[in-house]
Structures are given as structure tokens and as C-alpha cells.
Amino acid sequence: xxxRASWKGYLKLSLVSCSVSMFPATTTADRIHFNILNRAxxxxxxxxxxxxxxxxxxxxxxxxxxxxxxxxxxxxxxxDELDQVALESTHTLDIESFVDRAEVDGLFLDESHxxxxxxxxxxxxxxxxxxxxxxxxxxxxARVVLHRRERLLMLQPRGRGxxxxxxxxxxxxxxxxxxxxxIPNTRVPGDMLxxxxxxxxxxxxxxxxxxxEDRYETALKKLIAAKRAGKxxxxxxxxxxxxxIDLMEALRRSVKGGASSRKEASGASRSPAKPARxxxxxxxxxxxxxxxxxxxxx
Length: 298
What we know:
The chain has 298 residues and is an alpha+beta fold. The protein has seven helices and nine strands; from the N terminus they run ββββαββαβββααααα. The strands form two sheets. It has a seven-stranded mixed barrel with strand order 1-2-6-9-8-7-5. The protein has a two-stranded antiparallel ribbon with strand order 3-4.
């Protein structure tokens, strides 16, 4: 059964507009969810909204939104008053500008939605807007009110429809300099970099979401199945300890391990990492010889 539209309205580009519907592009419905139970009775626990001072339950009709201004003073806002904050973006997705997709920093991307035509009348207008964006390889920036908050959306062609990705506002993204500027500028020796690059190249593949398993979710299912069947509970794997202190040695072992794995898989008789290891060994030997000469000279 298809999910219900999370928003319905109009997509507008200059004087061209069409009816559209928006649907969540992602879901967490398949995740395992837990209920909180009373250990003594086995009954589910129900949470109540209570007055912070009196501890008495507050009925739904008595609940009202408030904005704190000073101490315990609040500005109360009724639902109908909030609805009066009329914005065109409440019912209209007006594309304000177009930019190159590469200009949009991934840090600003939030949840995504599928945008589809809302009726047959607007099919042609919807197709024209999507095709024009696809031809020029541009994404559109538009605003829409979702859950009583105006969100900035990035619209890009996807299949026969559009993908609308919510963007965070600038004040919602923390300044990277507060975290990254204190990292020392570390010089990386060339031979270490060569080995690291070799390891990266040996693991190059394609992004295939179907190959990634939620291992925690799988472990939870096994745990639940074992408890239901009254079997011994699966134990967590012991964390692997690493005694490697020398970074160069760790890189060499990584290259050797990767080469061995490929050799076993392909039946090859020669390790493809051998030239890289020989080159690294020569450089290391040269450095040791240079250090010895410096000691003798001093």
C-alpha cells in the first residue's frame, strides 16, 4: 500500500504551475521497535503529560504552545494563531533560482521526498519543468512550509519525477573551523602515502546499497528469535586488539593482507603488491643508512 502524501500543493516556475504531491523518500518502518513494559505485570507503560509544578495530568484541550520570554513568563500561541502566519510557500513550491548541483555542500542536505504530479491536468507542465532542469543539469531551490516550518528544498530530476531534498539553513550548520582548524598540519612521508594509496585502490568498488547489511538489526533479530525459542543467547564478538605500533609496518601488513586475499580469490601465483613493497623497503633501507651516516658524523 502506497504511503499517504505528506504535502499537497502547487509547483510553480515563473507563470507555469501544476499540482504536485510530496511523499517521504525514506522510511524507518522496517527497523525493530520496542515497547516499554512494566517488568512486574508485563503490561505496556503509558506516558502522561503532567503539569511540571502540580504533577496533575493535563488534558489535550488544555495544552497550549508557549514561547519563553523571561523566567516562567511565556507568550501563549493558539493553533489558529499559528495558522494565521500565512506564507505563499504553505501551498506553493515556487522555484526561486537554479544552481549547479556541485555547488550544494552535502553538509546542508537533510531528508528527501519524492515529488510527483498531483493530477493529469498538470502532467505536461510538470514534465516541461523536469526536462528543462535535466537538460541544463541544474537543480532548483524552492521554499515550502512543512509541519508549520518553512523549509528550503533542492529539486532535482529523478526518474520520471523530482527528488525534493530539504536543506538546512546556514545557522543550523556548525562552523567547521571550530573543529578542524586545530588539527595539526602533519607531513606524510611519500612511501607511506604510496602504500596507503595502494590499499585504497585495492578496495575501489561501486556504491551498491543492496550489499550493505544493517548488522545491528540482524543481531537484534537473532537475539529475539533465540529468546522466543528458549535457546542460548548469541554472544557479542570479542573486539580485536591491535599491537601494531609502527605505522609503516601496519601499512605493509595491510598491503600484504589485501594481496593475499586477492591471490586466494583469483588463484594468482604472484602478489600484485610486491613491486610496491619492494619500493617501500628500498626507501626504508635508504633512510636507515642515512641515519647511521649522520650518527657517525656527529
